[in-house]
Each structure stands twice: as structure tokens, then as C-alpha cells.
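Case study.
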Amino acid sequence: MDSWIGLLKKDFLLMKNRLLVFLLIDLAAFALGWYLHIREIGFVQQPELNWVLYDNNDLIKFIPLVIAIGIHVLFIGNYILMSLNKEGKQLHLWLHNPQSAIVLLGSKLVNGFIALILSLGLLIILTTINLIPFLSEVSFYLGDLTKLLLYFVVNIIFLSLLIGICFMFFWTIYHVLKSRIGRWSVLVLIILINLFIWMFVSLESTAVYNQLVQWGEYKLEFSTLESFNYSDGEFDQMITNYLGKNLFDTIFALLLFVISAWVIEKKVEV
Amino acid sequence: MDDFQATKPIYMQLVERINHKIVRNELRAGEKLKSVRDMAVESGVNPNTVQRTYSELERMDIVETKRGQGTFVTEDEMKLNELRDSLKNEHISRFITQMADMGFSKDETVKGLQDYIEQQEVE
Amino acid sequence: MIVFENVSKSYLTQKALDNVNLKIPNGKIVGIIGENGSGKSTMLKLMAGLIRPSKGSVKVNDIPANRKVSEIVTYLSELDAYYVMYTVKQTINFFSTQFKDFDLTKAYKIMEFMKLDPDQKVKNLSKGNRGRLRIVLSLARDVPYIILDEPFSGLDPMVRESVVKGLLSYIDLERQTVIITTHEIQEVEALLDMIIVIRNGRILDMKEVEHLHEKEQKSVVEWLKKVYEAS
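After joint prediction, the assembly is written out as follows.
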């Protein structure tokens, strides 16, 4: 237990400064929204209401924040790569340790997750701050809006973990390649990544795959958001998902994680 | 840390050093020797070598090891006198051999020695 | 005992070890001596389970040396690596969480012996003090095998002396074995029980140091020259 906490703490401190930078970027997104908002007000005297809730000038405050939240699908991957690269420069320091590679990598993943939650949490708080003036206006939609935001965030966390594990996997592969084939390893790695994506995409289009994962259908309804009709189309009030797909992704991620740990245990050299 | 000659086993050099200390009375009969570790640290020598030094001294009956207490210089005065004599003889024999090698006769050597000592006393 | 059986190790472009057969007995301080690139570090990394042989096997106490071997082996790399965000004390504390046999009290004792300031950031330490810290970390474990890759390299004579004294003060050869590579042969001559000479990935010879003094009347350096000339 002590060894796990020791590792977690070490990995957290290793990335503390980077994490602060991430949080500053979040604040910058908030500031950017306000900057754009204030600049717009200067030009438009009489805001024209073309949406039910707010005018464009208010909406613009949210855009950088929403983009920032969206980019968080890459957050854990990015975080883990930075953290692993710090260890990569002094691999013996990281690997001369009786804890299994699962534990060593697990600490990186958990830290990435914690950092993601901190950064996402900050962005959600900032978004909420921007929402406060409209709370009375949106009270009718508040339930569904929260649900939608939650769905959005949960998906980002899940996807971020998945991508994080993929990055981790390719990092370990890169380290094996580097000691085996030297300078060609970057090229080979790029080919491998493309192959990997191509395989994944082809798999998803096969009938077998779809049969395998399309079970346990569940729907999320956002009925109060019906009035969000706008010129480009209609907001789909219903999101359909499959438990099977979620399970498949989870197993896939776990498998990749275990393989990464195995590669470190058996193939990576200092 | 001490310097050692490369052409002689280090454990023997340590034996000689301790013997000299005993003869000079820096180590008295019955006095405790440093522990193997302290001796090793002080002289910068492998503890196994120090252990071998102590074993050799024990074999020569100059020290004895008491279980759980350490290693002590023997209290057997006869043994210590023997050590004294043997060191003396060793040095004399080396001196005589060197003098003979240089072609001095026994008489010349003894005379030279007497003159030297007398002169030292005058000064 | 550490046993190398027909061990070869190849890297990308060169062969680092070539069919090494070796038995290193317990309870001794063993020096591995050889030029740069002779395969010394490779041997130590194999013992620490940080790399794997291309051929043959390396066993520590009859267990194949893989990463798990770090439970009974402490390995000090020739590289000057550490976690920069930690102070001396935090570094010691971190290591104590990772190794079950890490003796924190002993670590602080060696730290004081080495005159290290516990609250100084590791990244602000002088090279000599970082070398001392790495010795603290290696010797604080109650571990059967202590493997030190070039513990003296780049350190001034004062630091080298404190490292030697630290080593002699805090190892216990009744339970521990020390394996050390070094360039400073003269300095460790009195420290070593045994010496292994390696060149171009091959073991040229293995001898008891006192045997050299007694039977061949040679210092390690003189003997080394002879062995090299003969090879």
C-alpha cells in the first residue's frame, strides 16, 4: 500500500508543473471567451435575438470553454506521454523497482485520470460561472442541459482513458523498437499506428463486430431541448448507445493496458 | 586510508603493522583490538582481509578471540617476548644480509654499528 | 551466487557480451575491470534484470534475473539520474516506500555520515553530493546483492574516500555481496576480494586479489597489463 501511494505521489509531483500549465490554459480559455464577448459588444449596439436563449455575443463566451472541454479527449494521452518521457530519459530509475509494470503504468494512468478530473472540473466550474446570469431563463431546460453536459463529460473521460492507454501502448512499442532497430523506429511506429487505426476502422464496419457489440441498447432522452431547433437541422433529442459497445471498448482498453505492461516487463531494455 | 605495497598480501602487511604496534607497546597485553569493521573502515581495507589478518595473528598465538567479545592481544608474556625477539632477529638478519651483500665483513659491521651508536649518544 | 551461463548480449550494432561463463561467489567484494565499452555495464544491467541476454542465462540465487530480481539486488547506475523535484530526504523517503528491505534509520545515518543536507533539493546538489546520495540509497537496503556501476567516476578524491568508507561501514559481507565496476583501480585495490577482467565482451580472467599479491607479487594494475598483453 505504501509503495502504491509512494508511486502515485512521485508521479503526481513529477507532473505538478505541467498540470499547473494545463489549468492555466483552462483559465485562458475562459478569459478568451470574455475577451471575444467584450470585443463583439463594442461593434454591435443592439444585439439581435436569433436564438431562444441568448444572443451570439453571450454564446461566444462559451465557445473556447466547450472547445477546451472537447480537447480533453487527448488529455490523458498527452499527460501520460509527458510523464513517461520524463521516465524514458532515466529508465533504470523507473524500472529498477520491484513493483510490477502494471503497478508502474497504473500509477501513470491514475494520475492522468486525476489530472483530467481536476482540469475538466475547473472548466465545468468556469462554464457554470458563465451560465449563472441565464439560470432563470434556462431553468426549464436545466435538467436536460445538465444531463447532456454530464453525458458529454463522461464520454470525454471514457474516450480520454481509452486514447491514453493507446498512447501508453505505443510508447512502450516505441521503446522496444528503439533498442532493436534504432533510427528507423519512428517510421515503423508511424506505420504501426496507421495499421492499428486502419484495423480498428475496418473492424467497426464488419457485420460480425456490429452483431457482437449491438446489444444492451440504452437511450438518453432530452425532451425539453426540443425547442432547440435551428436552421441547420434539428437537435436529436435522443442518443442511442449500446452496453455491448461500452463493454467492448473497456475490454479492449484493459487488454491494451495489460499488453503494455507485459511489453515493459519482458521487452523494454534500459 | 592506508597505503599498501602491491607485492605482499595486504593481510600480511596488516599483521606486520599490528605486531609492530604490540612491540612498541601501543597495543598492550590483553588489550582489545579494533573490531573487524572499524579496522576495515580505518585502513580502507576489505573486511574479509582484516578477518584473515586476525586469523593469522590468532594462528601465531599473538591474539585470541573471545566469543561475542572481540579479539584481544594475548596476555601470555612469553609469546609477546617471542614476538619481540623474532622481530628483532628479522631486522638484524636483514641488516646483516644487506651489509654482507655490500661486501662488509662481520667485524666491520659490528664496529660500524658500535661507532654509530656511540656517536648518537654523544649528540 | 550470481551465475552467467553462456551469456551473449547484442545491441543494435555491436556485441556487448560474447559467451560469458561466470560464477560470482557470495560474501565478497568483486571488481569488474575493463576499458570503456568492454561490456562491464552490460554485465551489471543483466544482473539487475534491466536487460535480457540474447543467449544464455543469468541467475541470481538460482532465480532468472528479470525485473523482479530488484527485490534482492540493488543497482546503482553509472548515470547521474534522480527525480529533480525531490529533496534529499524526500528522495530517501520515496525509495523507502518502494523497497521492502529499505532501512530508513540506516539511510538517515548514512546520509549524516555523508554530510548531506536533508532539505536540499536534489537538483541543486553538487555532482559529488549526488554521488554520495546514490550511495546512501544503495547501502540503506538490507539486500543480498549490491551492484555499483562506476560509483567513483567523476568524483574528486575526498568524495571517493567517503564513498569507500561508507561502503566499508555499512555493508555486511556475511550477508551481502558487492559487485563494483570502476576505473580507479589503485583506489579499490585494498577493497576488493576478487577481480574480473573483461575485454571486448569476453572474460579474460578472474582472480583473488590477495592471490596476485602473494603468488605473482603483482599489483592489480601490473597484472591487468599482463593479462591485456596476453589477450
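Observations recorded in class. Chain C touches chain B at residues 27-29, 161, 164-165, 168-169, 171, 173, 189-193, 209-210, 213-214, 217-222 (CB under 8 Å). Residues 81 and 130 of chain C are 9 Å apart (CA to CA). We will return to this complex in the next lecture.
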